[in-house]
Amino acid sequence: NAGVMQNPRHLVRRRGQEARLRCSPMKGHSHVYWYRQLPEEGLKFMVYLQKENIIDESGMPKERFSAEFPKEGPSILRIQQVVRGDSAAYFCASSPLPPTSGVRMTYEQYFGPGTRLTVT
Amino acid sequence: QKEVEQNSGPLSVPEGAIASLNCTYSDRGSQSFFWYRQYSGKSPELIMFIYSNGDKEDGRFTAQLNKASQYVSLLIRDSQPSDSATYLCAVLYSSASKIIFGSGTRLSIRP
Fold this sequence. Notes:
The complex is a heterodimer of chains A (120) and B (111). With 120 residues, chain A is mainly β. Chain A contains no helices and eleven strands. Chain A has strands at 5-7, 10-13, 19-24, 31-37, 43-50, 53-56, 65-68, 75-79, 88-95, 110-111, 115-119. Chain A is globular. By secondary structure, chain B is mostly beta strands. Chain B has strands spanning 4-5, 11-14, 19-25, 32-38, 45-50, 54-58, 61-66, 71-76, 85-92, 99-101, 105-110.
């Protein structure tokens, strides 16, 4: 059973270009989360998606950033007109259950290896 | 006030000693708490999960939760050099739609 897959692992973009980050959740998982991690910092929640639905995007910048999780295929995090401040590691995590299940039972998000975005 | 706070460290502990990592959180309604370990350049991995007040032990790891004080800690007994990593505290918010991470504590185990 393959784990969470992310590609590309490393992505270099010039300022103003678009960055597309892909995440394939573990088999059977329909809940996907995106996090951003700046150097020497913790993970910042960006967005929580289920198939074809954005459940919580409160951590995502209002402009230039968008995310989707279509019925078929991977989840995509898209960053338009990238700036140097977008340089970070972007992690995707998936789970088989919604976060509400974590109130009274073991709840785990499985993380992918991350995509390291460098904006030059 | 940050939603989840941790000392950034680095915390240096001699091999074989107990490492104590602390975390406070602001959302009083939070129900579930997690400790993740992250090696440099790698993705986080879950090592402990706790939702009841008190202690939860798993091997060399013990998580402690005090909801009244909004405080959660992780103890690592018999510390090993392989425990050197950044430890991230995470909290499932009462809205239950997202997990909020602290900025992490860097732990260094010296031989």
